[in-house]
Amino acid sequence: MKAILIPVKEFREAKKRLAPHFLPADRAALAAAMCEDFFNVVAATRCADRVFVISKEPGALSRAQKFGWETIVESHQISESESVDAASRYCAERGIQALLRLPIDIPLVEPYDIEAVFERLGPPPFVVLVPSSDGTGTNALLRSPAVLFPA
User: Fold this and answer.
1) Alpha carbon 94 to chain centroid distance?
2) pLDDT score recorded for residue 114
3) Which of 138, 132, 136, 133 has its CA nearest to residue 151?
4) Is the pLDDT of residue 136 over 90?
5) How far is the C-alpha of 106 from the C-alpha of 108, rounded, in Å?
6) Would you state the pLDDT for residue 19?
7) Dihedral angle, C-alpha 22, 28, 30, 32, nearest 10 °
8) Do the Cβ atoms of 143 and 96 come closer than 8 Å?
9) What's the pLDDT tens digit per position in 72-114?
């Protein structure tokens, strides 16, 4: 079974690198808009059996439920990696063999971009890493099994 995992930081805690330029409310509004846009893109894909959202953010959890996705409610957020690792274990326990972690802030992503990552999937153990354009981060992480290694 294949799934997409979307970790979402609390909107008020998102985009802190923009703090010198934008007010907290503006950064939260930006994060909310990015979440909504990204969820719409994921909803248009046809490559995963299930979608999971892990977050403490009520707005993200509510949007995920409207799409019929499974939510993992966090009581606190330590880091994206911690959230992804906890959610990966949760997904593996529910029979997910291949898990694609995607952040909500991938610019200009389209459904076919997400589908193309799953098309690369081979037999386990297998991994696909999609680096950010500046090379400082990972825009997508597909692991099979879902807990192949820590995020």
Assistant:
1) 18
2) 97
3) 138
4) no
5) 7
6) 85
7) 180
8) no
9) 999 988 899 999 999 999 999 999 999 999 999 998 999 999 9
Tokens, residue 75: 């009581």
Residues whose CB falls within 8 Å of the CB of residue 70, separated by 6 or more in sequence, listed in order: 50, 51, 52, 53, 64
Here the tokens at position 135 are 């090379």
**pTM (2 decimals)?**
0.95
> What are the structure tokens assigned to 83, written together?
């959230």
Return the structure tokens found at 45: 């894909």
Pair 96, 1: CB distance under 8 Å:
yes
Q: Mean pLDDT over residues 27-32, rounded? A: 96
Please name the helix (run of DSSP H) or strand (run of DSSP E) that holds residue 41, with its range, or none.
Answer: helix 24-43
**74 vs 66: CA distance, rounded Å:** 18
Contact criterion met (CB below 8 Å) for 69 and 88:
no
How many other CB atoms are found less than 10 A from the CB of residue 40? 12
Residue 136's CB is within 10 A of a number of other CB atoms, namely 7
